[in-house]
Design goal:
Radius of gyration: 20 Å
CATH architecture of the largest domain: 2-Layer Sandwich
Helix content: 40-55%
CATH class of the largest domain: Alpha Beta
Structural class: alpha/beta
Largest sheet: 5 strands, mixed
Oligomer: single chain
Strand order of the largest sheet: 3-2-1-4-5
């Protein structure tokens, strides 16, 4: 079973090919990061236009790297939700056209679910159940995953996603976009205890909130005696990591899970990775985190997720919709 995955939900034009659900044959990502950097964030119309220009060359490159042709493809997986409407339409329209021409199934994939499945590519031993945290520029969602396709949302951010907070606070500090890598780099020479930024733990809930932390960073930077930017960056990063780890571990204990899965763009943050692995190790829990290349948006996770759908679910027709906003819910794989 060879599945070609297409990902265009935001500003990454990506294609990957996966064999039998877990063997990655190739992955290609064309980033638009530099094009959006001058705007301080993703411009939806610009992203959509670049997807139109880049997608076919990216698909051709993926086939070439895997030494395959379109006739070798068993099915196509494509992100159809959530994401930027125009960007999603480019990927879905292209996938449907290819599927129609080749006479093969086209499988719609939920972007958040796909982030979880990125772990199956590099951790073939991983199995559910697990407590899963998906943390990115647009999402900070905590799930109890009973089995394939059976998800229970435990909590999510009530305001800014963690990655969004990184971007906004980096801008306040005068650091370049995207904020996650910029703050991580600045924090390397900073003191994480320089500023005692607040932690919005909200006892009794699994929800997150980062807007207060963002405001605290703004006020700290306005003070005449504010520490240097590396100290601010390190202290901010420590506050975000502390909340993400503590709430994830608390949820795992409450649900009786011994496996923790971390995914999404912010999972590429080295401080978060170390802290989560250490917290799990001290409690006898297994911790699975994809490599950085599979944390950020990519098509390998789309192809892998589509493979599981292909094996365990009824395959939809080509009339499925593009949905800009939809929470991840159980679908009973």
């Amino acid at each position: 079973m060879i599945v070609l995955g297409i990902e265009t939900s935001c500003d990454e034009t990506a294609c990957a090919i996966v064999q039998d659900g877990r063997k990655l044959l190739c992955t290609v990502v064309a980033s638009q990061m530099e094009e959006h950097a001058s705007y301080g964030g993703v411009v939806p119309e610009l992203a959509s236009r670049r997807h139109v220009e880049l997608l076919i060359p990216v698909i051709r490159q993926a086939l070439s790297e895997a030494n395959l042709t379109l006739q070798d493809i068993t099915a196509i997986g494509v992100t159809n939700r959530p994401g930027l409407l125009g960007a999603l339409l480019v990927g879905v329209t292209s996938a449907k056209a290819l599927g129609q021409a080749l006479g093969i199934p086209v499988i719609p994939v939920h972007h958040i679910e796909a982030h979880l499945y990125a772990n199956f590519i590099t951790h073939p031993e991983m199995e559910f159940p697990a407590t899963a945290l998906v943390v990115s520029g647009g999402h900070t969602d905590l799930f109890d995953v009973e089995s394939h396709g059976v998800y229970r949302l435990l909590g999510r951010t009530r305001d800014d996603a963690a990655g969004e907070a990184f971007d906004k606070c980096a801008r306040l500090m005068g650091l370049p976009y995207p904020g996650g890598p910029s703050i991580q780099e600045a924090a390397k020479s900073g003191d994480p205890k320089a500023i005692a930024f607040p932690r919005a733990l909200m006892p009794g809930t699994h929800a997150f909130s980062f807007s207060g932390l963002k405001t605290s960073v703004k006020y700290a930077l306005a003070k005449p005696d504010c520490p240097p930017v590396p100290d601010v960056a390190a202290s901010f990063q420590a506050a975000v990591v502390d909340v993400l780890v503590r709430k994830t571990i608390a949820a795992a204990k409450e649900c009786g899970r011994t496996t923790v899965v971390l995914a999404g763009g912010v999972a590429a943050n080295a401080a978060l990775k170390v802290a989560m692995e250490d917290a799990c190790s001290r409690r006898g829990m297994r911790c699975y985190i994809p490599p950085p290349s599979l944390c950020t948006d990519n098509a390998a996770m789309i192809a892998t997720t589509a493979s599981y759908h292909f094996m365990h679910r009824a395959i939809p027709g080509l009339d499925f919709a593009v949905i800009p906003s939809e929470p991840l819910s159980s679908h009973g794989i």
